[in-house]
Specification:
CATH topology of chain A: Cytochrome Bc1 Complex, Chain D, domain 2
Order of helices and strands of chain A: HHHHHEEHHHHEEEEHHE
Radius of gyration of chain B: 16 Å
Chains: A mainly alpha (253), B mainly beta (108), C alpha+beta (164)
Structural class of chain B: mainly beta
Helix content of chain B: under 10%
Shape of chain B: elongated
Largest interface: B-C, 37 and 37 residues
CATH architecture of chain B: Sandwich
CATH class of chain A: Mainly Alpha
Order of helices and strands of chain B: EEEEEEEE
Distance between the termini of chain A: 50 Å
Largest sheet of chain B: 5 strands, mixed
Strand content of chain B: over 45%
Number of strands of chain B: 8
CATH superfamily of chain A: Cytochrome c-like domain
Shape of chain A: globular
Number of helices of chain A: 11
CATH architecture of chain A: Orthogonal Bundle
Strand content of chain A: 5-15%
CATH superfamily of chain B: Immunoglobulins
Strand order of the largest sheet of chain B: 2-8-7-4-5
Structural class of chain A: mainly alpha
CATH class of chain B: Mainly Beta
Radius of gyration of chain A: 19 Å
Oligomer: heterotrimer
């Protein structure tokens, strides 16, 4: 094939492919300028109330267990960028875990304390705190090696038509981005702001809570918090948004 | 209810006579009452109904809140820097519980 | 059910009704179909509410600005800012500012008490608005008079309601 032919083929491929990482925008790009300002304002974004709770829990001692900070000293440095590498495959178990899963694992296996439970205020606080330590760090999750099958499963989930409305994620979050859906603007479906303070919730919630709302929206099966399906989807979304800066705690409608 | 916490944002220092802005964000569900929870029970009204702010002992601001104030409410107001002292923030919740926080303003 | 003052977040909401699924389908149409905000004088209910607040006095327009988004993104938390032109001296200051929302279940929303110590009459807060309506800010002045500003607001509905 000639160079011109290759260029043409590449251009055609580009046209056919619905999404490009360099075009993907974070959720905050679809907010009003006022809400964008508020998200960045630690005295105004209520998500920081949860970050503050997480910061307290991080150094709170329970019985004789080590505290988080006894292993992760100087978290502002030692954990900076950590959240940007989740979800990832846990070496010991071979399972895909996200930041919530890693915090729970530390809690149960190292601190010998009962798990907080997905979507508990304590786990949301800790997750929001640890995620906030990676604010503005570019997302860099792996889709290769052990992560490959999970990535493929997540991609398949994203592209599969689901529910009574028979919609795939991609039909809105690639094909209709920027258009209005009732009072909302359709975003790229990027999770870099989570855990986020959502006005609809009057509080902070996880990405999986947001995904459950998406599933309900198309009248499809709502999977459990921390389910394999949503974990794989979370990985796919993270790979798709590779290079975007983390912005948790986000502020969302 | 989750832990009460408040974020008070204001300058640590001001010149005498300067007007300073005080911004207050507080964690509270502000349950307006009447909603039905997951177990089918009606949630009673429980809101923060008042925030009183004193500065070096003198009242400088009061916010009367009703059910039309948002969850995790934010409020900002101004006060004139007169002397070095504590600003004391006291929230009163339905049922009589109170929560207090303080912030120091140094006046130069 | 996707009411802006929906139950606390931990509580699952009932499944979507057929009508709401249709509404999601109708998406963009919903906004376009909204009527332009009425510019008529305050309706009687609001006038009565105001009269109760001012003990019968008729508030004047002017000297007070009331910033509130005309199109509210989510009624759960609506940013408002109120400023009153006042020297804030012992002789001439704003005593309080009262917010009233005629169609809220409890129309008295908030009252901010100020004094000459405030330096300025300049308040921001986050309110909860049940539906599209007229909202008014009334300030009581130390001289005994009142000033008022109001706004017609439209509360849009979120498409992505929570499934718990």
């Amino acid at each position: 094939m000639s160079a011109a032919g290759r260029a043409l083929a590449a251009a055609l491929l580009a046209l056919a492919s619905p999404a490009f990482a360099d075009e993907i925008k974070p959720g905050s790009a679809f907010l009003s300028p006022e809400m964008q300002r508020q998200q960045e304002d630690q005295g105004r974004n209520p998500g920081y109330l949860w970050v503050e709770q997480g910061e307290e829990l991080f150094s709170r001692r329970e019985s004789v267990s080590p505290t988080c900070i006894s292993c992760h000293a100087d978290p502002g440095q030692s954990l900076r960028g950590a959240a940007a590498r989740y979800p990832q495959v846990d070496r010991a178990s071979g399972k895909l875990i996200n930041l919530e899963g890693r915090i729970e694992q530390c809690r149960v296996e190292r601190q010998k304390q009962p798990a907080f439970g997905y979507e508990s205020q304590d786990l949301l606080g800790l997750t929001a705190y640890v995620a906030s330590l990676s604010k503005s760090v570019p997302l860099s999750v792996s889709a290769d090696g052990a992560a490959k099958p999970f990535y493929e499963a997540g991609k398949a989930f994203y592209e599969r038509r689901q529910g009574q409305l028979n919609l795939a994620c991609t039909q809105c979050h690639d094909d209709l981005v920027g258009q209005k859906l009732r009072g909302d603007t359709i975003s790229h479906g990027v999770g870099t702001g989570y855990p986020a303070y959502r006005l609809e919730w009057n509080g902070v919630g996880s990405l999986h809570r947001r995904l459950r709302a998406c599933s309900l929206g198309v009248r499809a099966t709502q999977f459990d918090y921390g389910s394999d399906d949503y974990l794989a989807l979370e990985l796919y979304l993270a790979v798709r948004a590779k290079g975007l800066a983390l912005e948790a705690p986000g502020l969302r409608r | 209810m989750a832990s009460f916490n408040a974020r008070i944002t204001m300058p640590a220092e001001a010149k005498a006579g300067e007007i300073v802005e005080v911004r207050v964000l507080v964690r509270h569900p502000m349950d307006r009452g009447g909603q039905v929870d997951a177990e089918g029970r009606v949630v009673p009204r429980k809101i923060l109904n008042r925030l009183t702010v004193t500065y070096a002992g003198e009242p400088v601001f009061r916010y009367d809140m009703h059910t039309g104030v948002s969850a995790n409410p934010f409020v900002s107001f101004t006060t004139r820097a007169v002397e070095t002292g504590e600003l004391t923030f006291e929230w009163r919740e339905d049922g009589g519980a109170t929560f207090t926080r303080t912030a120091r303003l140094v006046v130069t | 059910m996707s009411s802006p003052i929906s139950p606390a977040c931990a509580h699952p909401e009932p499944a979507l009704s057929r009508r709401e699924v249709m509404a999601i389908g109708a998406a963009g149409l919903a906004l376009a179909a909204l009527p332009a905000p009425a510019r008529a004088a305050a309706p009687p209910a609001l006038t009565e509410l105001i009269a109760r607040i001012t003990e019968g006095a008729v508030p004047e327009r002017g000297r007070i600005t009331f910033d509130i988004p005309q199109l509210v993104e989510n009624g759960n938390s609506v940013d408002v800012a109120i400023q009153v032109e006042s020297p804030m001296t012992d002789a001439d200051h704003v005593r309080w500012i009262h917010i009233v929302a005629e169609k809220n279940p409890f129309p008295d929303v908030a009252r901010f008490h100020l004094s000459p110590r405030s330096g300025r009459a300049d308040i921001r807060a986050t309110l909860r608005l049940a539906t599209s309506q007229k909202v008014a800010a009334i300030a009581a002045l130390s001289g005994g008079g009142y000033v008022i500003a109001d706004a017609d607001i439209v509360v849009t509905l979120s498409a992505c309601i929570d499934g718990g």
